[in-house]
What we know:
- The protein is mainly β and 457 residues long.
- The chain has 4 domains: 1-163, no CATH class; 169-305, Chondroitinase Ac, Chain A, domain 3 (Sandwich); 310-376, no CATH class; 385-456, Sandwich (Immunoglobulin-like).
- It is 0% helix and 54% strand.
- The strands form 6 sheets. It has a 28-stranded mixed sheet that branches. Strands 36-37-41-40 form a 4-stranded antiparallel sheet, with no helix packed on it.
- The protein is rod-shaped, with a radius of gyration of 38 Å.
- 39% of the residues are buried.
Amino acid sequence: MNKSNKIRSSLLLLNILFVLPQMIFCGGLKNNDANIIVNNGAHLVITGNYSSSTDGVIKLDGTMSLTGDLENNNTTINVLDSTSNGLVVLKGTSGQSITGTAAETTFPNLAINGGSIKDLGHNVIISDSLSLDNGFISLGNYNMLLNSTAVICGMPSESAMIITGGSGKFKKEFTEAGSFDFPVGADSVNYTPATLNFSEGTFNSAWAGVNVTAAKHTENGSISDYIARYWNLEQNGIADFTCSADFTYSETDIVGSENGIYSAQYKDLVWTAYSKADTLNNVISAVTENFSDFTGYQGYEISYDANEATSGDIPSSQVKLHAIDLQLQNNSGNLARTGYTFQGWNNDSEGSGTNYAVSSILAVNESVILFADWNVILTAPSNVVLIYNGSNVEITWSPVFGATGYEVYSSVDPYGTFEPDESGSLINETWTAPYDGDKRFYFVKALTQTKTVTELY
Length: 457
């Protein structure tokens, strides 16, 4: 039968204390430079605070649980022996903290339980595992780092997560490309995790970190449709990378119409737009090669239509963010249409709307379909026949593809100046004028809205 030793609040002055199989310190424990050994299978229970002074060490291969604060005041060595592989359980039902004058505390395995918030008073490192069972770790202005082999256990959720309400970041070491879920939120109400998936990159003493803020980004110019939350990503030691980043927002983060929200990144005073928000799963996503701030922004889809092109590829769609000018695509897919020349883009398929040159700037705040704008390649009128019938001169010709009209010019000198001849009347491809008895030379011009081709006769 396992037996427990219960000891009231104690100042430990021994050099060595063996804990086997279970020892309970009621009211807390202060370790005054002693070595505490908790063997595998043993359980050190502290109902209160644990405090170490200067060099008090726990060799933890079993379990240590406490309901109060863990105060690490060690100056040269970690509060847990470096060879420890046991578990520390913070199970207080009211607020707890990991604090002390030490610069940081390293845990082989840490479990969060009891439902309360555990505040950091300095940086924390996790070597093997972090179990989020029931409760929160609030980083404040400190960082928590998971080593490259450390894993998240438990069931991260709105009742078990990392709170990044201050400037602190939740970090994960990377030694190679891979994916990791960051179980973060800005408070103890909304669980808004981030997932980073590195598909490529070089990693040298590398880590990636996440911080989330439950507020509209200060530079977000959206007026109606946006996410009132943003995630800040930071990395160290990762070069030439491509990362797919997914950010989960809560229903209460949505302002305006969710259908009008697109993911966007703010870096160096510039916004970059990505894809439309996944409204089914409350996720915004980005594939990025650099880190900064990410959020949901009011946007408009700009799509392109080949408009009867006979070859080539249409450009990919773009996203225009509200109140931010967008440079339009060029004809990188070499769209072409037999009998026409490519002129740019137009918001009307017949070319009667607004013309946009390739790579020009779009300022309008609305979704737009831009059609390839074509100008017909006119040929000169052919099969031209001129007939004098005594009183009239008549000129006929074959229809010209794409022509919207014709004009007849005349001159008494074939090498002189030809002027529009307004003496006749035009019906389709036939021009008739009274014959005045003078010898004249004529040419017929085929017309389109923006281009003409002429031929002398």
